[in-house]
Amino acid sequence: MTITYQQISQRAYEIWEAEGKPGGCEQENWLRAEEELRKQDLKKQKGRKITSQDPAMMKTPRGENL
Predict the structure, then answer these.
(1) Distance CA 66, CA 61 (A)
(2) At how many degrees (to 10) do helices 5-18 and 26-47 cross?
(3) pTM for this structure?
(4) CA angle, corner 7, sides to 19 and 15, nearest 5?
(5) Three-state secondary-structure class, residue 60
(6) N or C end: fewer C-beta atoms under 10 angstroms in the chain?
(7) Are 11 and 37 in contact (CB under 8 A)?
(8) Helix (H, G, I), strand (E, B) or coil at 65
(9) What is the signed CA dihedral for 7, 12, 15, 21, rounded to 10 degrees?
(10) Each residue of 3-49: pLDDT tens digit?
């Protein structure tokens, strides 16, 4: 799964709100949000059984469908 700008932005905003809306923490909140979302994505991927029918496995290295 690709993590989108919108997802990171939303999570960073949630962190900012939860921390009491402090000023000057934009970059830290953004990086924290990005890290959290990547970890969540990795957990989902580890739990997913990959088979030859998996859409991700049906593409060539150039991203072309088989």
Answers:
(1) 10
(2) 120
(3) 0.66
(4) 5
(5) coil
(6) C
(7) yes
(8) strand
(9) -140
(10) 999 999 999 999 999 999 999 999 999 999 999 999 999 888 887 66
